[in-house]
Amino acid sequence: MKVAALQMVSGTVLDANLAEARRLLEQAAAAGAELAVLPEYFCLLGARDTDKLAIAEPFGAGPIQDFLARSARELGLWIAGGTLPLAGRGADRARNSCLVFDPRGRCVARYDKIHLFRFDDGAQHFDEARVLERGDAPALFTLAARDGRTWRVGLSVCYDLRFPELYRGYAAQGADLLLVPSAFTHTTGQAHWEMLLRARAIENLAYVLAPAQGGLHENGRRTWGHSMLVDPWGEVLAQQAEGAGCVAGALDAQRLARLRAQLPALEHRRL
User: Fold this and answer.
1) What are phi and psi of 34, to 5 degrees?
2) Phi/psi class of residue 62: alpha, beta or left (left: φ > 0; alpha: ψ in -120 to 50)?
3) Are the C-beta atoms of 178 and 206 separated by less than 8 Å?
4) Enclosing domain of residue 130
5) C-alpha distances out from residue 79 to 5, 35, 47, 93, Å
6) How far apart are CA 138 and CA 171, in angstroms?
7) Which among 96, 97, 114, 134 has most CB atoms closer than 10 A?
8) pLDDT in tens, 208-219
């Protein structure tokens, strides 16, 4: 099954970001992808953390969700919508949510980011908990491919990547593919991004598809990029360093089964 990680350099204008996302989704569909995954904050990287609150939508209704549903339906794609802000418990909080739409435009899965990023090296300061509330539970969905195969897919977002127990839980539930839409900072991405992605793939004997924000944004933030597809043996199959683009590759069900049979590490776990 062909898949695509869509890398963006999102700005501060919602409509412009959606137009760019649509261009990349069309590129993925033209390349034969069945699943396309957008990066974290694909719809907006605002000038301030609170900007995302202004576009937060109730779950099930809103222009960003309508855009994702319509694009999935018109392009015949499974789309994992990176993240978008969904309404939280109060007007001053939102959920950083990944929604998955099937080719009919139906929302079939929702994952709210569980681990909220905080970083302070004296020069850069980030604290997502100022405007976001954490999610409550992991989320998997089953994707029926055109060839009749089914894939179990586990959802995560960016900073979740540092918490291997989330992915181990997905593996225990039969996950074949792990999605990691992200907006890693240049500093942390340069140090750890590829290492963490390959580790999650190897230890769970699963494919990892990680679309990212990659470049210098209007708000002055610089993200690491390097969107990639990693196979269950830890091999990077496709990658793009910076700039907007479509990182496409193929999942091989026979290779996945063969590797799991040759090295049945998932069966050897002892708690």
Assistant:
1) -100, -30
2) left
3) yes
4) 2-267
5) 10, 6, 27, 25
6) 12
7) 96
8) 999 999 999 999
Q: Is 40 a known active-site residue?
A: yes
Q: 3-state class of 26 per DSSP?
A: helix
Total residues found in the chain within this entry: 271
The string of pLDDT tens digits covering residues 91-116 is: 999 999 999 999 999 999 999 999 99
2 labelled catalytic: no
Which CATH number belongs to the domain containing residue 116 in this structure? 3.60.110.10
The catalytically annotated residue of 34, 40, 128, 133 is 40
How far is the C-alpha of 38 from the C-alpha of 100, rounded, in Å?
10
Among the listed ranges 75-84, 118-127, 149-158, 224-233, which one has the minimum average pLDDT value?
A: 118-127
User: How many independent structural domains does the chain possess?
Assistant: 1
DSSP state of 146: T
- At 123 the pLDDT is 85
Which residue is catalytic, options 52, 128, 133, 158?
158
Cα→Cα distances 69→100, 172, 251, Å: 9, 30, 24
Cα–Cα distance for residue pair 54/60, rounded to 1 Å: 17
Quick check: is 267 catalytic? no
- 123 token code pair: 């020069």
Query: Residue 96 to residues 18, 38, 93, 116, 134: CA-CA distances in angstroms?
Result: 17, 14, 10, 9, 8
Token pair 């994952």 in the structure block, residue:
111
